[in-house]
C-alpha cells in the first residue's frame, strides 16, 4: 500500500522569466580540472568508500546506499582538498491505523511546484515524495571529520536527478522532480551551517552590512531548461553512460557567487543517491582564480530489502 499521507509540505515557485536563468555571458566549460582530479590526492578516500557499485535496475533507494565525492577548492595558488560522503541511514516510516488494521507506511512529504508563465498566469501542482534520511559528512583529505549532519531528501527527486531538464522528451512530473532536487540543494545550503562553511571556501562571506540587511545569509539557486549538452569525455563513476552538462548559478544575498556546471548521468543504482552527479566545475564570477571542482570517487548499494 503506498504511503500517501503527507507529513510535511514544501512550496517551490519557479518563473519562466529570464531573471531566473543563469547569466548568458558565462564562460565555456573547461573540463580539464575534473579530468585532472586524482583519487591519489585524497589519502583517506579508499578507507571511507572504495569502488563503484555495479549498475542495477532496482529503482528504489536502500539503507546503506553511499556515494563519495572529492572536492578541490582553489583560491589562486592555494588548494584545499576535502571529501564528502553521502549515506542513506533511514527510510523513515510512520505507523497508522485503518480501523482495527495497523499499518506501517513510508513517511512522505508533499511538494507544490508553482510555475508562472510570461503572461503572468500561475499554475500549481502537488507531488507526494518519499522521505530519505541522508547523512552528509565532510572530511579533510587525510580522513579527519570536519562536519556531519542528517538531512531529509526525497526519493523521487533523487531518482530523477537533473537528467529530465536535459531531456526534451521528459514529462511534466520528471521535470518537476528535477526542480525538487535543485530546491533541496538550495534549502540545505540555507539550513545547514556546515555546507555554508564549505561554500565560503569558494566565495567570500557576505559583508556585515549585507548580513544585517538580509537578516543573515540567503542562498538562491538559479537555473533554466537548456538544450542537451554532452560532456566530451568519459568519467569514472559514469559506468560508460552518457554524461551531460547542467548549468546553474548560485547567488549569495542577491549577489552572483558561483557559476556551476554539473556533470550528470541518468541516475541508476549507485548514482541515484547523488541525483546522477558525477562531477562539478564551479567558478567564482568575480575571481577566475577561485572556485571548486568535484568528482564522484565511489558508490555503494545497500542490501536489497527481503
Short synopsis of the structure:
The protein is an alpha+beta fold. It has 6 helices and 13 strands.
Describe the 3D structure.
The chain has helices spanning 32-36, 45-48, 155-160, 172-191, 193-199, 208-213; strands at residues 6-15, 66-75, 78-90, 93-98, 101-106, 108-116, 122-140, 145-154, 219-223, 244-252, 255-264, 277-284, 287-300. With 306 residues, it is of the alpha+beta class. Strands 1, 2, 3, 6, 7, 8, 9, 10, 11, 12 and 13 form an eleven-stranded mixed beta sheet that branches. Strands 4-5 form a two-stranded antiparallel sheet. Mean pLDDT is 82; it is low at 1-9, 11-20 and 207-215.
Quaternary assembly = single chain
How far the N terminus sits from the C terminus, by CA atoms, comes to 17 Å
Q: What is the number of strand segments?
A: 13
Largest sheet: 11 strands, mixed
Q: Order of SSEs, N→C?
A: EHHEEEEEEEHHHHEEEEE
Poorly predicted runs are 1-9, 11-20, 207-215
The helix count comes to 6
- The average pLDDT score comes to 82
Shape: globular
How does the helix and strand content classify structurally? Answer: alpha+beta
Instruction: Kindly provide the radius of gyration, computed on alpha-carbon positions and rounded to a whole number of angstroms.
Output: 19 Å
Amino acid at each position: 500500500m503506498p504511503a500517501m499521507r503527507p507529513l510535511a509540505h514544501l512550496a517551490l515557485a519557479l518563473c519562466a522569466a529570464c531573471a531566473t536563468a543563469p547569466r548568458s555571458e558565462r564562460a565555456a566549460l573547461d573540463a580539464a580540472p575534473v579530468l585532472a582530479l586524482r583519487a591519489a590526492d585524497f589519502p583517506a578516500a579508499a578507507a571511507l568508500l572504495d569502488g563503484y557499485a555495479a549498475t542495477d535496475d532496482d529503482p528504489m533507494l536502500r539503507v546503506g546506499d553511499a556515494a563519495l565525492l572529492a572536492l578541490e577548492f582553489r583560491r589562486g595558488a592555494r588548494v584545499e582538498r576535502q571529501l564528502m560522503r553521502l549515506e542513506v541511514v533511514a527510510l523513515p516510516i510512520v505507523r497508522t491505523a485503518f480501523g482495527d488494521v495497523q499499518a506501517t507506511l513510508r513517511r512522505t512529504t508533499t511538494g507544490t511546484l508553482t510555475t508562472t508563465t510570461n503572461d503572468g498566469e500561475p499554475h500549481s501542482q502537488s507531488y507526494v515524495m518519499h522521505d530519505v534520511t541522508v547523512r552528509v559528512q565532510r572530511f579533510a583529505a587525510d580522513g579527519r571529520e570536519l562536519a556531519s549532519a542528517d538531512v531529509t531528501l526525497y526519493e523521487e527527486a533523487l531518482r530523477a536527478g537533473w537528467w529530465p531538464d536535459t531531456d526534451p522528451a521528459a514529462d511534466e512530473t520528471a521535470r518537476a522532480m528535477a526542480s525538487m532536487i535543485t530546491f533541496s540543494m538550495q534549502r540545505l545550503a540555507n539550513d545547514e551551517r556546515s555546507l555554508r562553511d564549505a561554500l565560503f571556501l569558494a566565495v567570500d562571506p557576505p559583508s556585515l552590512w549585507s548580513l544585517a540587511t538580509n537578516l543573515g545569509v540567503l542562498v538562491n539557486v538559479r537555473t533554466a531548461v537548456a538544450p542537451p549538452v554532452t560532456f566530451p569525455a568519459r568519467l569514472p563513476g559514469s559506468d560508460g553512460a552518457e554524461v551531460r552538462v547542467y548549468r546553474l548559478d548560485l547567488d549569495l544575498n542577491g549577489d552572483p557567487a558561483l557559476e556551476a556546471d554539473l556533470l550528470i548521468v541518468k541516475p541508476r543504482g549507485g548514482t541515484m543517491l547523488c541525483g546522477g552527479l558525477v562531477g562539478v566545475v564551479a567558478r567564482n564570477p568575480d575571481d577566475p582564480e577561485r572556485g571548486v571542482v568535484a568528482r564522484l570517487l565511489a558508490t555503494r548499494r545497500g542490501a536489497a530489502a527481503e
